[in-house]
## 1
Amino acid sequence: MADNHNIVFLNGQFMPISEAKISPMDRGFLFGDGIYEVVPSYKGKLVGFGLHIQRMQDGMNAIGIKLNKSVDDWRDIAQSLIEQNGKGNLGLYFHVSRGADIKRFHAYPDDIEATVFAYAFEIPEATVADKTLVKQFKVASTQDLRWKRCQIKSTSLLGNVMHFQQGHDAGVHETILYNQHNELTEASACNVFIVKNEVVITPPLDNQLLPGITRHMLLDILRKDGTLQVEERVISMNEVRAADELWITSSSKDIAPVVELDGKPVGNGKVGDIWQLAQTLYSANKHNY
Ligand SMILES: Cc1ncc(COP(=O)(O)O)c(C=O)c1O
């Protein structure tokens, strides 16, 4: 899929990316006033599609964007993008902004049409539950300085972008974040889990973190399997630093094992046995969602 031949969806039509144009008055451009999703597709099979679309709808409801599209409408767009862009491994990006007005005014205009954009991009092979093959992640940590509505998957991502850049500048893959009470929230583009004494622990859902679909599916899969104990509770950064294992999760990464935090080894500095078990279960069951 050469990028300039990429076929994208914009406001009801499919077209080459080079022909996709939006107004500079679009509120997505001026205010970051929009909601987005990224859904992974492996060889034409979408993972967690209904869950992703529900989260996008929740986001639109939260910010008052009205759009008449059903899950099936979105699925048709996804299938069409997959057919037109090859059946490899694709991330499907969906974006709804409030639309373009004739003036720049903060209040939501009543009578504009939302801008709907979707495109597909190549993603790596699905993570294989093999300690010797999996990519080992290094992360930095810093205080979470984003806004207080992190449960909304908003296109206003500057806070996340700046935190990601901190890690990038430090030569690591991600930046994990903690609030003013020294409690773990999430990472700039992932949710975070720790393992201590074989218990898998992640922060509870609230306004400090995105309700990740990978997080949701992983918790569900682990609870149904029952081998590992699972907890959703507040985690202090002291616990994170003393964890046996540290994972970051997202739709494009599955469960990514972290071996180094702020230049120090996590646990014994190697990919852990609990990761191996969790990723095995996740790989076996993720297509059921
Ligand atoms: C801030 C943030 N947290 C968590 C996630 C993980 O969410 P999901 O598992 O739905 O991809 C993402 C994904 O992009 C994210 O941007």
## 2
Amino acid sequence: MHAIVIEDKQLVWAEVPDPEAAEGEVVVDVTATAVNRADVSQRQGLYPPPPGASEFPGLECSGVISALGPGVTGHHVGERVCALLAGGGYAERVAVPVGQLLPVPAGLSLVEAAGLPEVACTVWSNVVDRDRLRSGETLLVHGGGSGIGTFAIQLGVALGATVLVTARAEKHERLRALGADLTIDYQTQDFVREVLDRTGGRGADVVLDIIGAKYLARNIEALAADGRITVIGMQGGRSAELDLGKLMAKRGRISSTALRARPPADKARIVAGVRDRVWPLVAAGLIKPIIHTTFPLAEAAAAHDLMESSDHLGKILLLR
Ligand SMILES: NC(=O)c1ccc[n+]([C@@H]2O[C@H](COP(=O)([O-])OP(=O)(O)OC[C@H]3O[C@@H](n4cnc5c(N)ncnc54)[C@H](OP(=O)(O)O)[C@@H]3O)[C@@H](O)[C@H]2O)c1
């Protein structure tokens, strides 16, 4: 088969051996995959795959099952699926543990489903499973125009939360159309003041943060009493000073997770939660895949250039 391999920090379309389905795995013939910011870091040599994962980039895909490994029951060759991957999605075929398979949500095409598993599992596991966002609460999402952000806006709205987002101004209109109640231009506005103004001084109950160090102190300023901050990205650095006094005064919590390195059983639990709690919202049309554009898989390098420009909104898909 062919796959995108990383050579000298470049993405190259190359012939590689076919994957085989190990115990508890299936092989999926890939229809489409999606670009994630982590793939860019992997290409740059900053984010190696976890032990045992495919060397090829690609954290999610959709496609059709073409082979079953030993011990697999409840799935069949020809079944249309999408999947959360530890790597290997930028390929014509990929081996997937069955616990990371999801059905294609009702009403979506195989291509549309390709960009949902990574954002759905990341956002649901943090905002709902850990941080317990409730109806009536306020969710602050940094990077509202990202793949993660566009999904988090829709999930927050579907759960009955007020959703505030930071993004560059040119993305604001489209983010309000997705349901964001307030869009903050982080380049010209102070998000702390905007969040406090909007919430009558209360602050945000849950903060989903992709910036890290640069926003740590200000996230605490913008946090409501009993608020929860989850850091899932370090685009603004990894080390910062933490004022425990300010956090304690608000009875605040800070946590951080990385989906890719979680053990398979943990991923399977998250995937099951997404299937049961999030897929019905997708099938009902309350959450839509937000696809900026598509590229042929062999032209993944151009897709990475677009992601690095940050001019996209939502997901960039790669089609086989
Ligand atoms: N921990 C995990 O398990 C996990 C899983 C998935 C993703 N992530 C992380 O989530 C983030 C988003 O991933 P993605 O694949 O959705 O990436 P993406 O679509 O490339 O989005 C990145 C976004 O960051 C925004 N941004 C840059 N500087 C900003 C700032 N100072 N304030 C607010 N927004 C800013 C950009 O939007 P503008 O054009 O508005 O600047 C850009 O759209 C990445 O950091 C990724 O590593 C973590």
